[in-house]
Amino acid sequence: MPDLREFKWKQCLVVRADVKMSCGKKCAQIAHAAIGAYEKADKLARKAWLDEGQKKVVLKASTERQLFELKTIAERAGIPASIIQDAGMTEIPPGTVTALGLGPARAEDLDRITGDLSLL
């Protein structure tokens, strides 16, 4: 049965589609992005998002540049943002930018920034 609740808060997690990573590696990078952005959010946003059920949407970006552009736009809008760089201990070179976490923030604010991205 579909969930018909309206979520007013969410996180958007964006992973690079141009970096070859296993499914598990992508999941780890997305998790890092979620925690990083959460830690930058204020108490009000965190509480509202947690109380509502912690909606997350995972999207893909085509390039590193796109991640940084999204981060800049989000920060200018007052949305917490966290860029993730890999340590390079497993699959990819050290310092590779892999993912971006945005929010928790109001869903409509995130939609204005990430609405053109495809789901992972």
TrEMBL record:
The record ties this protein, via SUPFAM superfamilies, to: Peptidyl-tRNA hydrolase II
Reactions catalysed, semicolon-separated, are:
an N-acyl-L-alpha-aminoacyl-tRNA + H2O = an N-acyl-L-amino acid + a tRNA + H(+)
Keyword Lyase assigned to the entry: answer is no
The keyword Metal-binding is annotated on this UniProt entry = no
Identify a single GO molecular function assigned to this protein: peptidyl-tRNA hydrolase activity
Gene3D superfamilies linked: Bit1
EC identifiers of the protein = 3.1.1.29
InterPro entries according to UniProt: Pep_tRNA_hydro_II_dom_sf, PTH2
The entry's keywords: Hydrolase
State what this protein does. The natural substrate for this enzyme may be peptidyl-tRNAs which drop off the ribosome during protein synthesis.
Q: What is this protein called?
A: Peptidyl-tRNA hydrolase
Taxonomic classification: Archaea, Methanobacteriati, Methanobacteriota, Stenosarchaea group, Methanomicrobia
Name the gene for this chain: pth2
